[in-house]
Amino acid sequence: MYDCDVLEGLKAELDKLCESDPIDLRDSETIVELHRCLARLEAVTTTATAAFDAAGEWDADGARSAAAWLRARCHLPPTSAHRRVRLGRELRHLPATEDAWLAGDIHDSHVSSLVGVRKPATEEALERDEEMLVGEAKKLHFSTFSRVLAYWAQHADPDGTENEAKDNRDKRKMHLSQSFGGMWFGDLVLDPISGAVVDNELRRIERELFEVDWAEARERLGDRAGVGDLARTPAQRRADAVVEMARRSGTAPADGRRPEPLFSVFVGFETLAGRICELANGTVVNPGSLVDWLDEAWIERIVFDGPSRVIDVGVARRIFAGATRRAVQVRDRECFHEYCDVPVEQCQIDHKEPWSAGGPTTTKNGRLACGFHNRRRNRGP
Ligand SMILES: [Zn+2]
User: Fold this and answer.
1) Ligand 1: centre distance to CA 122 (Å)
2) Over the stretch 183-199, which tens digit does the pLDDT of each residue have?
3) Which residues are registered as beta bridge partners of 188?
4) 170: CA distance to ligand 1 center in Å?
């Protein structure tokens, strides 16, 4: 056992903390501070585990590996035990990551992501750029950091990421099987682009079914109707949406016009923003993975004259439409709110300065807002 008062002291302090009334801990600064402490404890547990792993003490107990030892002694599920040992081993090659984690500036999810991009082909580049990436991890939303990291990996190992994209596409599969009792069970794996195509359409049909359910509840209960009064759960509506997709497919003429766009992807403006190649839902994709879809693609060009300024198409109207609408969508790509990262497809366009207060319908005065943040703002005094 660690021959020092430090751990005993920490345990005594933790006892006090755990005995406190959660009500006394609920202010926002304490919540942030507690999360930092949690990260620091995880970090030091991981580095200690790495040392334990390297010293081979687990061997004396007859365990097959450090992870097997952790599973038995700490009652961890296999995935958690393996992850802890793996992160510990990889941290030795990522000094800036280790420092930031021990300081509580980043969390285990950041560390996992950084470890995930370290491969023989990227080792050297990672050694060069680790500090910059950790800096981004400290200041960005996690989803934005993941995008930054995905672009970084594309640059560091273009061939590897192209192959990975192909592997992902090759992993696509679908099983639909009937059980003994006659019920059907499905299992579906899709690459990012195919998934976005299916997800977009499924959401669209589910939205239609929601409108039907909502109208029915309103008719039954009037203004009292709430989300809890709908005839179907969201999962039931999604299931019905899949069946509806099958019905529509059966009735659509084989030479009918394809709906467009099946998915949107933002590419280009290298000179302003570095490489951009991502689906409207924010998933970074490889340029190569677009090739399969190019013969069905139609292209829309948007001209930027600065990193965040699309050349305006300023027309006096209340609703954002056409090119103005598109310009805001392409520029922002996410809900404007600091605490939100709902992607463009699920956002509306909102006037920064309200129309009623004379705010113009221009890209400069427009921003993306999810339904929640749009309503919340309109509810204000
Ligand atoms: Zn939002």
Assistant:
1) 35
2) 999 999 998 888 888 99
3) 174
4) 35
270-294 pLDDT, tens per residue?
544 566 777 777 778 777 777 777 6
352 C-alpha vs ligand 1 centroid, how far in Å? 14
CA distance 157 to 166: 14
Instruction: Look up tokens 């003490």; give the residue.
Output: 57
- Whole-model pTM: value is 0.71
CA of 336 relative to ligand 1 center, distance in Å = 7
Does residue 97 contact residue 134 with C-beta atoms inside 8 Å?
yes
> How much is the pLDDT for 315?
46
Q: Which domains does the chain have, with CATH numbers?
A: 5-168 (no CATH), 190-251 (no CATH), 266-378 (1.10.30)
- pLDDT of residue 160 exceeding 70, the answer is yes
Rounded to the nearest whole angstrom, what is the distance from the C-alpha of residue 207 to the centroid of ligand 1? 18
Name the strand (E) or helix (H) holding 254. none
Spacing, Cα 196 to ligand 1 middle (Å): 20
User: What distance in Å separates the CA atoms of residue 197 and residue 283, rounded to the nearest whole number?
Assistant: 13
